[in-house]
Amino acid sequence: MTGPNGSALGLMAGGGVTIVGHLVGVGGYPEVGLALLALATLAVGAGTTVPGALACAAQAWGMYSGFWLHGLGELRLDRPSVTGLVVLVVLGVSASALALLVRAVAEALARRGEGGTVFGPDGGYRLSPWLRAPGPAGPGG
Hints:
The structure is a single chain. By secondary structure, the chain is mainly alpha-helical. The protein is 64% helix and 0% strand. It is built from four helices and no strands. The N and C termini lie close together (12 Å).
């Protein structure tokens, strides 16, 4: 997905995780919030571009700092908040870069004349549409 779509999905995922976390009663545990936001950032980061993953991580940090660490959306750059920012940015960008590398390797293997499979023409593992480089019609398009 494109960067703007990844950014929008990241905002929705971060907001959803924050709302659900507070509804189930773990809003007072910032460690739980960081773990949940990290999972959301990893998931979105793996499916978007590096700029999209960076935007997702920044929005997840806003949720973490504003609603898990501090109350009422107040953003601060204190030590726990900066730690959360670093964790989220590293995870999101790393997931995006790793997914890009996996897609590039999978495409290179498929282009080697191996019948569109990763491990050979004898019915090896077929490439998932989500591992292909995004085309104009979306993944696998």
